Amino acid sequence: MATTTTTDHQRIHPLDLESATAPSAPLVPRHQTTSEKTPLHPPNPNPNPNPPFQRSIPLSHLPPPKRRRSCFCKCLCWSLLLLILLIVAIAATAGILYWIFDPKLPKYSVNRLTISAFTVNTDLHINAIFNVNVTAINPNKKIGIYYLDGSELNVFYSDTNLCSGEFPVFYQGHRNTTVMSVPLNGDVKVDSQLVSELTAQQQAGNVPLVFKGNVPVKVKFGALKLWKVTARVTCDVTVNSLNVGSPISIKTSSCKFKLKL
């Protein structure tokens, strides 16, 4: 009996610390992170009255971007405005000049043709010497015309240049009519078909000719002399014959005039 009692007193029963200290129920349910009344991380009851100094980094102020597009738009607008003003000024000046001078186109006509030589050689060369009178009319009251050097007058038959010459150099005043005598001569190679057509039209009494003149001129408005332009005159003329010694009559004559800058 004594032995049994001593053994019972010497046995050591371990204590379950976890079960002793752990609460029987959790304070916060597992599906909830904070308590309904108390926050999970309560504020510090004793905040530091002197927080550590934190150095602030100054903001860098970048320069504003250059307004290149705005400057380009302004330059474009000013250029367009100046161009419009220039066009308006030119139009106004032209209108004033037109109202003051009342310009009219000159008129031209072929009123006489003299043939000194017109032969067809055996080698189909045509030798022609003409003399043509061209009448130029300037109907303007305050505009004069300078006929300059370097002009030419050509006579064509069926696109073949028979002979050529030059207009005289002179000044035609206001409301003036001038008759110019222009000598023409030429030597051209043709084909047999053209000779046959020309012979048939001479026998019929209807020979179509085309007179083409290119004349450099300068127009004078009052005391103002403008730049040089080219006057182009084209006259469709029908004559009865091209025979030497026979009278040449002009049956029809129609002229067109235009300026080339």
From TrEMBL:
PANTHER family: LATE EMBRYOGENESIS ABUNDANT (LEA) HYDROXYPROLINE-RICH GLYCOPROTEIN FAMILY, NDR1_HIN1-LIKE PROTEIN 6. Residues 134-235 form the Late embryogenesis abundant protein LEA-2 subgroup domain. Its main location: membrane. Residues 40-52 have a biased composition (Pro residues). It is a single-pass membrane protein. One of its GO terms (cellular component) is plasma membrane. The gene is LOC120275846. Residues 1-59 are annotated as: Disordered. This is NDR1/HIN1-like protein 6. It is found in: Membrane. InterPro entries: LEA_2, NDR1-like. GO terms for biological process: defense response to other organism. Keywords: Membrane, Transmembrane, Transmembrane helix. The chain crosses the membrane at residues 76-101. The lineage of its organism: Eukaryota, Viridiplantae, Streptophyta, Embryophyta, Tracheophyta. It comes from Dioscorea cayennensis subsp. rotundata (White Guinea yam). It holds the Pfam family LEA_2.
